[in-house]
């Protein structure tokens, strides 16, 4: 019986995280949308129209799970922001400092212009990527 429950649990875990999944933590509220962009090289990095995958999803307070459909493994950089007013743009203040929740993969906090190499991570099939939003 214990083995049956273990097998069922493992199958459910594979179903939830079977492909590439991003788990966005520390989401403050459920207003607006979570915007995720995936890049695979430095030439396309930060150019929204060149992202290999773009996802907009209604946030869930605390944690929002984003399943990826196009990218399943390899070197990627992820940019996430909480579009709190749902206008499709990241609000910024003085010196372009974000006024809405944002984050890069690899727990990267740029000290100037963001770099693909510093934000990039190795995406492994079946292992979720965890990103914490900064507000």
Give structural notes:
The protein is α+β, with helices and mostly antiparallel strands and 135 residues long. The protein has one domain (2-132). The chain is built from 2 helices and 8 strands, in the order αββββββαββ. The protein has helices at residues 2-17, 116-119; strands spanning 21-27, 33-39, 53-57, 62-67, 74-83, 102-104, 120-123, 129-132. The strands form 2 sheets. Strands 2, 3, 5, 6 and 7 form a 5-stranded antiparallel sheet that branches. Strands 4-1-8 form a 3-stranded mixed sheet, with no helix packed on it. The protein is globular. The model is unreliable at 5-18 (pLDDT under 50).
- N-to-C span: 46 Å
The helix-strand sequence is HEEEEEEHEE
The percentage helix is: 10-25%
Q: Which consecutive residue ranges, at least 5 long each, have pLDDT under 50?
A: 5-18
Mean pLDDT: 88
Instruction: Find the count of extended strands (DSSP E, 2+ residues).
Output: 8
Gyration radius, to the nearest Å?
16 Å
SSE layout and pairing:
Layout: H1 2-17, E1 21-27, E2 33-39, E3 53-57, E4 62-67, E5 74-83, E6 102-104, H2 116-119, E7 120-123, E8 129-132
Parallel strand pairs: 1-8
Antiparallel strand pairs: 1-4, 2-3, 2-5, 5-6, 5-7
């Amino acid at each position: 019986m214990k083995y049956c429950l273990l097998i069922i649990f493992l199958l459910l875990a594979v179903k939830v995280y079977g492909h590439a999944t991003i788990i966005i933590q520390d989401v403050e509220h459920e207003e607006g949308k979570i915007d995720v962009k995936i890049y695979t090289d430095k030439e396309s990095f930060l150019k929204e129209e060149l992202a290999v995958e773009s996802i907009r999803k209604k946030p869930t307070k605390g944690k929002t799970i984003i399943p990826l459909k196009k990218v399943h493994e390899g070197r990627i950089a992820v940019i996430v922001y909480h579009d709190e007013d749902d206008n499709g743009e990241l609000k910024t203040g003085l010196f372009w400092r974000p006024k809405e929740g944002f984050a890069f993969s690899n727990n990267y906090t740029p000290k100037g212009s963001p770099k693909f190499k510093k934000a990039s991570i190795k995406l492994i099939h079946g292992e979720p990527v965890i990103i914490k939003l900064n507000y």
